[in-house]
């Protein structure tokens, strides 16, 4: 077909769609040509997308893997990614969303550091016509403020941890809990899910519970303080993530006890460090929380931008791992 014919068709087609259609994509006239499947021909491709991502920080092995997954997938797909790191501060993360709105990105992905406090900035994104996908963590906002939540069932992770713990301690334990970042969705739900199952075990008690902010350094400090206060009374640790469990292992060894034996430890994430600790006999189990969300995130983003329907929640598929399988599985772990 001659160029002049293409331009005539484009002009005719544009008049039915509004002028924006032809102006937007001067580089690829052919995608605007009407045919039997004109909608498909108007669809954006990965290379057309500008995606903003407001990451919460770099607090754990899990988060590092999550960030790599987002960045690597964007590169592989040819998506233009505007990635901002809030360094564990909600104010920074809110500012990051505002910057992405000013930049007029096509869509924003965000892992909200805590559940509350998002309505105002999400409303700003909505006003600007920029959809939001919640990745990894939920936010406590009305459902029409985001298009989808892609991530884990944190309540179920807490329940799984409690069931495993019950088996390990023969249904009798004095547990200390290392809680994640206060107010975050995983900390809130892992706290509740664990307690829900514990009701079935009258001889299992949580004797103390404190935040280690999902970091190894804080996990170690909090565990050292628990040991100072309760000493040998502690028989089990429930850590909301692997990094804090690894910090607790350091503290238990410094105190002169054997982690994994004198004190049973169950954590969440299933990161490489947890497998190494299980192989060394220092950790008793880890419940998987999958950080490799890049491929699913960009697939959802493309669908949203193209106006295709997507589920309100896309759950991750996750398992539980024990020391007896750790050596075999470790080489296959990507994070
Ligand atoms: O939101 C997921 C949690 O955040 C991970 O379990 C934890 O390691 C991370 O910091």
Explained architecture:
This protein folds into 3 domains: about 1-30, no CATH class; about 45-150 and about 290-315, 3-Layer(aba) Sandwich (Rossmann fold); about 155-290, Rossmann fold. It is built from 13 helices and 12 strands. It has helices at about 5-15, 20-25, 40, 60-75, 90-100, 120-125, 155-170, 185-200, 215-230, 240-255, 270-280, 295-305, 325-330; strands at about 50-55, 80-85, 105-110, 130-135, 150, 175-180, 205-210, 235-240, 265-270, 285-290, 315, 320. A 6-stranded parallel β-sheet has the order 2-1-3-4-5-11, sandwiched between helices. It has a 6-stranded mixed β-sheet with strand order 7-6-8-9-10-12, sandwiched between helices. Helix 4 crosses helix 12 and helix 9 packs across helix 10 (about 240-255). The N and C termini lie far apart (about 50 Å). Bound molecules: alpha-L-arabinofuranose. Alpha-L-arabinofuranose (AHR) binds near residues 62, 186, 241 and 269. Alpha-L-arabinofuranose binds near residues 137, 186, 241, 243 and 268.
What characteristics describe this protein?
335 residues, alpha/beta, Rossmann fold, 3 domains, 13 helices, 12 strands, disordered N terminus, binds alpha-L-arabinofuranose
Secondary structure layout plus pairing:
Blueprint: H1 3-17, H2 20-24, H3 38-42, E1 50-55, H4 61-77, E2 80-85, H5 90-102, E3 107-110, H6 119-127, E4 132-135, E5 148-151, H7 154-168, E6 173-179, H8 185-198, E7 204-211, H9 216-230, E8 236-239, H10 242-255, E9 264-269, H11 272-279, E10 285-288, H12 294-305, E11 313-315, E12 320-321, H13 323-329
Parallel strand pairs: 1-2, 1-3, 3-4, 4-5, 5-11, 6-7, 6-8, 8-9, 9-10
Antiparallel strand pairs: 10-12
Helix pairs in contact: 4-12, 5-6, 7-8, 9-10, 11-13
Bound molecules: alpha-L-arabinofuranose.
Alpha-L-arabinofuranose is lined by residues 59-60, 62-63, 136-137, 186, 214, 241, 243, 268-269, 289.
